[in-house]
Amino acid sequence: MPGQDTAACAYSCCFSQGKKLSHALRISAYVFSTGLLLFTALVNSASWFMQNVTLGNFWQTAWLEFYDYMEGDEWTIFLIGAALVPALAFWGFNGILLVADITGKPTFITRYRIQLGKNDPVSTSYSAFSAD
């Protein structure tokens, strides 16, 4: 196949689709399980450290401080927890990708695009609300 390196061509020619799929699933399971294990260890270590710094009951103390700060208004706490925090997390991470799509910078993000060279950078002249 033109444009492929010899190792990729040799890999695709020598294995059946089922073997490639099982190999990809094994690698994915290994990567995801390792990431989950490391994330769990990091969270547990940070929690243990915070428990020792605050002389125990870190999460209870943090919740009570937040509850007192909100003056016990459960509706405001619900709105912040169910709407504001997820929205800020979504737009915080995806805003970086949006800027990378529109400007083409930073290049360390744009080099991992699935369709290289297509919509690079994304055209901003199209409007979903145009009369075309």
Task: Summarize this structure as a short list of keywords or feature phrases.
single chain, 132 residues, mainly alpha
What does this structure look like?
- The chain is mainly alpha-helical and 132 residues long.
- The protein folds into 2 domains: 1-55; 70-126, no CATH class.
- 70% of the residues lie in helices and 0% in strands.
- It has 5 helices and no strands.
- The longest helix has 37 residues, at 17-53.
- The chain starts with 5 loop residues before the first helix and ends in a 22-residue tail after the last helix.
- 0% of the residues are buried.
Chain-wise SSE layout:
Elements: H1 6-14, H2 17-53, H3 58-69, H4 74-103, H5 107-110
Instruction: Spell out the helices and strands N to C.
Output: HHHHH
Molecular shape: flat
Integer tally of domains: 2
* Classification by helices and strands: mainly alpha
Q: Please report which band the strand proportion falls in: under 5%, 5-15%, 15-25%, 25-35%, 35-45% or over 45%.
A: under 5%
The radius of gyration computed from the alpha-carbon positions, rounded to a whole number of angstroms, is: 24 Å
Sheet having the most strands = none
Oligomer category: single chain
Low-confidence stretches: none
For the residues shown, what is the average pLDDT? 79
Distance between the termini: 40 Å
Q: Helix count, per DSSP?
A: 5
Helix share bin: 55-70%
